[in-house]
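Let us begin with a simple case.
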Amino acid sequence: QVQLVESGGGLVQAGGSLRLSCAASGRTFSSYAMGWFRQAPGKEREFVAAISWSGGSTYYADSVKGRFTISRDNAKNTVYLQINSLKPEDTAVYYCAAAEGQFGGWVTKAHGYDYWGQGTQVTVSS
């Protein structure tokens, strides 16, 4: 099993920024593709961003393109999500996830991931 712990969430004003972190342990972090998902109350969990095991490929949901940046530091066993120009609709619990497979169409689907963190709350006020 892989353990994932998110941090960096908080309450911010619209237009502000946050940097979320996901620290991994239990297995070799660099061998996994990583993703970020989010879930607002009463809504389905939705894909946000993904990054390949090497960091060479990224993929973003249309709703966050140009505002969010996913990155990873394999030496630190950590994946990041830089969130800029926050909007109230970005309010959600943000989850990181790890997948044993390589990049494919599955990276945008929650069922494509094998391990999940507990989430960190991001709240954006208007």
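The second case is a distinct protein. As before, the sequence precedes its structure tokens.
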Amino acid sequence: QVQLVESGGGSVQPGGSLRLSCAASGRIFGSNAMGWYRQAPGKQRELVAGIAPGGSTNYADSVKGRFTIFKDSAQTMVYLQMNSLKPEDTAVYYCHTKVVVAVPFPPRSVEVWGQGTQVTVSS
């Protein structure tokens, strides 16, 4: 029953900024790692940034120094601040996490994906 919903995408010029949001249906980010992925047409989906329950982060080399992942104190929202955007950043961005679910039995780890939000960077 865990759900993730992304928002904040849009169209910007090179050098512009966007902030993406990922809203969870519960306080899952206090116990589960979360990642932002992106997928451009014809390309494989790639990890952009990740954050662990304790707050440690990691980034793809292509976005280091430009993107920042962070979450709120309530552990229900995760954000991706995107600065100095480039045309190569154009993609659909997805929020992702892994949770343990009890249905169907037995309990198991399940990957959860948001619906995606489009980011377009062009002149």
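The first strand starts at residue 4 and ends at 7. Residues 69 and 85 are 15 Å apart (CA to CA).
Keep these points in mind for the review questions at the end of the chapter.
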